[in-house]
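User: Batch of two.

Assistant: Item 1 of 2:
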Amino acid sequence: MQLNESQERYWQKNLNITAILLAIWFVVTFVVAYFARDLSFTFFGWPFSFWVGAQGALAVYVLIIVFYAIYMGRLDQEHGVAEEEEE
């Protein structure tokens, strides 16, 4: 199956945003959590390392999901592949 130019641009943008969001996920999950234990200050009354692991990472994950959903909805509209809503 041969893709036309619009489909190739769509797929390339999809791959780019996925790679960027996965890189953010990796940094939040592993890099920040690993180095946070060396930071010895409190954040909202808790040690920073605890906050990053228990609350901060989860907040970033939710933001990643929301951003991806909005971005892909707009990309779908831009390339004419959006799902039609039934009323």
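Item 2 of 2:
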Amino acid sequence: MEIVFKGPTFYCQEDEEHFFNWLYSIPAFKEVVGQGLELYLSLEEKVDQNSLEQLLVIFKRWELDLKSLEPLKELMQKSSLPWVQNISK
């Protein structure tokens, strides 16, 4: 599965390192490739709930467009994060 999104703005080198280290630690992570301003995030075909929720928090933390996670909408509806219920409908 591939998620394409506009990369975040980083405010220092450590901010960028935290972002990518967190992506790399997601259980369903396969790889991430940058092309221009966009990032192409490859995930395992079957994304688990923990991976989805980490992605949601990353997207919220770095103010990324949650619409990019549309392929995971079904899982989003099962999220335990209370603020996700408002966006997954």
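The mean pLDDT is 92.
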